Amino acid sequence: MDASLSPDARADLLLAQLTQDEKLSLVSGFWGAPAPWAHYDPPPLARHGSAGFVPGIDRLGVQPQWQTDAGIGVAQQGSVAVKRERTALPSGMAVAASWNPDVAFAGGAMIGGEARASGLNVQLAGGVDLMREPRNGRNFEYGGEDPLLAGTIVGAAVRGIQSNHIISTIKHYAFNDQETGRNQYSVVIDDAAARQSDLLAFEIALEQSQAGSVMCSYNRFQGDYACENDYLLNHVLKRDWRWPGYVMSDWGATHSTANAANHGLDQENGVIHEDSHHFGANLAQAITAGQVPQARLDDMVRRILRSMFAVGLFEHPIPEDQTTIDYEADEHVSQNAAEQGIVLLKNEHDILPLSANARSIAVIGAHADVGVLSGGGSSQVYPRGGNAAPGVAPTGWPGPVIFNPSSPLAAIRAHAPNANVQYDAGIDPGAAARLARHADVAIVFITQWTSESQDFSLTLNDNQDALVAAVARANPHTIVVMETGGPVFMPWLSHVRGVLEAWYPGTKGGAAIASVLFGDANPSGHLPISFPASLAQLPRPHLDGEGLPENSQFEVRYGEGAAVGYKWFDRQHLEPVFPFGFGLSYTSFAHSNLAAQADGDGVRVTFAVRNTGRRAGMDVAQIYVTPLGGGWEAPKRLGGWQNLALTPGQQAQGTVTIDPRLLATWDADAHHWRIAAGRYRITLAASARDPGQSVIITLPARVLERP
Ligand code: BGC
Q1: Of 1, 91, 585, 672, whose Cβ has the fewest other Cβ atoms within 10 Å?
Q2: Cα-to-centroid distance, 46 and ligand 1 (Å)
Q3: Is any ligand 1 atom within 6 A of the Cβ of residue 51?
Q4: Nearest atom in ligand 1 to 172's CA
Q5: 250 in ligand 1 pocket by Cβ < 6 Å?
Q6: How does pLDDT run across 329-388, given as a tens digit for each residue?
């Protein structure tokens, strides 16, 4: 308990006090909620409705690990009658669309505060798998397609969670980029491409957050399960990145005892999902038989204790009684995140912002009278006030489909008190069109529910494309508000005037949408992903595993290598519907004075941004790098960005320092990052497709010191 010692020293001292049984008990986690599919009753101490539980060691003051999901808020697992109702942030994708690490940190701090107040101290958050597959049902939990953006935003969120002296994971390590066959597929990609893409996102997120834990994923990588993968766990994570935390398995993702232990797994979780308890007695036996060194068990335990010390759990134990939560303050954090994450995709003839003096508005579809959609699966947060639209299928796992009770319709009415605002459920396109025909403006809400454990079509379901088309035919002033997990096809795009991508906007989503529609919030969100025009544009038009008999093993070959998202579109000369980095504002910005110079191993870029419009707004000034001599996975990479909030006429200086790894490629033979000598174009732009303005710099050849 000597807080003046380092977490490592304290972990060593505590480790020396533990019996073998105590050590073994720290490396196995159980299900925290009664599981309907197995005869298992968690101890009351497990906090029913949480994801998992690892008993503590009372005699030494080691608290239990109370694990819960996660990144969008404090979630609820299992069939517990009384739901734990908490504040939901907008989806991870929405937070990434803010491009604002402060927004991500504040959101994480909010979630961590509610977790602590709920008696929970390990948050299973930090999803940072890249969007290689737009159909992936979990894209909404993640940070988009670029390793720097995703790593930075997710890292800031996890730092926010851990600022509450609790542990967070970064997950799902690694390459769990689709849900179809998630327990069956093996990803194939070479070392250099892996390090320059998904692994770089994890590396950056870990550096930014100092996350106490990493959750290894369900899938296999190069043939071996992620949770017994020597390359991923021992070589990359623990050796090359020198990361001192502990690896926990995803729930039921442990498949062996000695193999998993020796290849770097430190804690087996979700034991109830498995055919056998791989750690516990089996691990004890493997140690006795000499298959797993005692030092390996000690290392597992040391890593777990070290993370508990490092976040301050011993100085700030979880209080016996649950404490109160300031929901009003937390909802404010969520609404701000939603407003900053909403992306204005189209605004023809400046149809937006709407005037408070509008006379008649037709609001159509997607339960917009009662609430806003959320994503499904283990990250599901149950809202205070209950599900605003109960009964939408699926009502069982990975549902229930939950609408947060924040009504866009009510918020629109509050913004336009003198307008005649009418609602139509949007089930019959003809009826919706009749309502729209006589309104000044029609706002159609569309939803695409996505969730853990399955992948989804990019074509909207329930006849929603026909609905939008019918309304747009009836009223030329049609605006579409999208609540989606990621990109969808928009066949009606050229027929509508305005489009807002609101993602899953969280607890105060309805209020946030209305505030952007009416211009109280000036949209500053930018896409963290590309919107493809068709499946044919994707590296894998056919979703691997789709159509195979259940439990078939298969490979997912990443032929695109590190050219994920916009890098792929650039390399293949494909035109997306909306490019990465894109987002409109109600004001305009002018960029000037771009300059770049070498700075240590990296590059320092400076520029000026002026707000040339009539409203205050936030610019997201993006810096892209192109090696003129080629040699990268794609023509260019995002090198950095800066968010600048400016009042009308105001000018400010921006500075971006480009991480040297984003100027380098991974040399797999020599095992280091290497910058090639040559000329590099540095571009200041408003999206990955904006030509922007450029300067050229020359860099000498260089090897980066740390792998
Ligand atoms: C999910 C994890 C989650 C865990 C515990 C798994 O099914 O993949 O993301 O943290 O369950 O709920």
Answers
A1: 1
A2: 17
A3: yes
A4: 9
A5: yes
A6: 999 999 999 999 999 999 999 999 999 888 999 999 999 999 999 999 999 999 999 999
